[in-house]
């Protein structure tokens, strides 16, 4: 069976940091499947005589709802439509609320999730489980991945001591800042809350900067979102920061997600080093690690290698095609097998 793949992107409609990560996934799909990337506002270009597959990536379900008419048109153009909800931790909140079916969310329109998409992929297991009872089409649990080709996880002589990207425990950030950022100190923490960044002007340049910072950092601070804000996040899940930090070869310090998925996705020893809630106690553990270069190197190298073996986006694309019994291009087979065979230094 000859298959023509196309990626339908929202990168021309949204410009937040989360879209940058989705764009990286889309770019991997494009390379591995020889798929054109089509902005949602552009006319679709498909070939006759081939099985036409659309891979639609949206950051959240709220983004999906904004372009429902476009998705109806896409549905009428392609033979199979795959939806990947990249930041899908709350997908079931949007779809199932007080036991209301998806079609009712569209205020009376005769549109259902089943009618728009043949396969729906979400990155968190409890979300996929909750959706399976509501929709007849295929619901796949496809965890978050990362394009490991964008960073060197084995970088030596890292210049940044601590990377604190995204949501953090503020009390520990204050403690580190007070201790590190003084005239007599030679230690450095890079901290930014990407949730406060309103607009990204250049997705590629922004992520080049991120990956450069990450692969030059010794320790990355990562926290279970549920631990930080249980009113916003209703459950523990494994987010993007874990795959990114480990791909870059960082030692991950913080609060390991309590989600059972964490032990499945990152089962190796020291994949996350838990710290106490007390910022002074946590800082002492951080300070101990920073004074153990051999430990930093050994943990970082294993994190980098294991992430390439398990969590590159190429593996996720391979899993989707395998589940759907679609032909797998040789370039994707070679890429996935090559990553799985990487050995520790």
Map the helices and strands:
Blueprint: E1 3-9, H1 17-33, E2 36-39, E3 51-58, H2 61-66, H3 68-75, E4 80-85, H4 91-95, H5 102-105, H6 113-116, E5 119-122, H7 125-132, E6 138-141, E7 160-165, H8 170-180, E8 189-192, H9 203-215, E9 217-223, H10 225-228, H11 240-247, E10 251-255, H12 260-265, E11 273-274, H13 279-290, H14 293-310, H15 313-324, H16 330-340
Parallel strand pairs: 1-2, 1-3, 3-4, 4-5, 5-6, 7-8, 7-9, 9-10, 10-11
Helix pairs in contact: 1-9, 8-13, 11-14, 15-16
Descriptive key words:
single chain, 345 residues, alpha/beta, Rossmann fold, 6-stranded parallel sheet, 5-stranded parallel sheet, 16 helices
Task: Describe the 3D structure.
The chain has 345 residues and is of the alpha/beta class. The protein has two domains: 3-145 and 312-340, Rossmann fold, CATH 3.40.50; 148-309, Rossmann fold. The chain has helices spanning 17-33, 61-66, 68-75, 91-95, 102-105, 113-116, 125-132, 170-180, 203-215, 225-228, 240-247, 260-265, 279-290, 293-310, 313-324, 330-340; strands at residues 3-9, 36-39, 51-58, 80-85, 119-122, 138-141, 160-165, 189-192, 217-223, 251-255, 273-274. The strands form two sheets. The chain has a six-stranded parallel sheet with strand order 2-1-3-4-5-6, sandwiched between helices. The longest helix is centred in the last third of the chain and has 18 residues, at 293-310.
Task: Please tell me the overall pLDDT.
Answer: 89
What is the rounded distance between the termini?
A: 41 Å
Strand content: 15-25%
Order of helices and strands: EHEEHHEHHHEHEEHEHEHHEHEHHHH
């Amino acid at each position: 069976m000859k298959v023509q793949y196309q990626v339908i992107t929202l990168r021309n409609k949204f410009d937040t940091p989360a879209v940058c990560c989705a764009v990286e996934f889309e770019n991997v799909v494009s390379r591995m499947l020889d798929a054109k990337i089509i902005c949602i506002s552009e006319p679709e270009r498909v070939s006759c005589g081939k099985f036409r597959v659309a891979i639609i990536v949206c950051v959240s379900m709220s983004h999906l709802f904004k372009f429902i008419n476009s998705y109806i048109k896409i549905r009428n153009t392609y033979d199979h439509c795959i939806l990947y909800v990249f930041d899908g931790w709350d997908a079931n909140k949007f779809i199932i609320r007080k036991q209301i079916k998806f079609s009712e969310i569209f205020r009376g329109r005769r549109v259902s999730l089943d009618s728009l998409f043949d396969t729906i992929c979400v990155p968190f297991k409890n979300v996929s489980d909750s959706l399976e009872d509501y929709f007849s089409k295929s619901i796949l649990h496809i965890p978050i991945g990362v394009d490991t080709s964008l960073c060197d996880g084995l970088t030596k002589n890292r210049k940044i001591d601590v990377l604190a990207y995204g949501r953090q425990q503020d009390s520990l950030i204050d403690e580190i800042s007070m201790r590190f950022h003084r005239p007599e100190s030679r230690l450095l923490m890079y901290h930014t809350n990407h949730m406060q960044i309103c607009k990204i002007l250049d997705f590629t340049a922004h992520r080049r900067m991120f990956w450069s910072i990450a692969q030059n950092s010794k320790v990355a601070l990562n926290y279970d979102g549920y631990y930080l804000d249980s009113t916003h996040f209703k459950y523990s899940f494994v987010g993007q920061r874990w795959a990114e930090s480990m791909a870059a070869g960082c030692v991950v310090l913080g609060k390991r997600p309590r989600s059972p998925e964490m032990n499945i996705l990152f089962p190796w020893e020291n994949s996350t080093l838990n710290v106490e809630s007390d910022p002074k106690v946590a800082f002492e553990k951080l300070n101990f690690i920073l004074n153990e270069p051999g430990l930093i190197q050994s943990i970082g190298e294993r994190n980098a290698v294991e992430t390439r073996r398990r969590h590159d986006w190429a593996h996720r694309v391979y899993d989707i095609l395998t589940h759907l019994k679609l032909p797998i291009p040789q370039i994707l087979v070679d890429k996935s097998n090559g990553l799985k065979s990487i050995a520790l230094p």
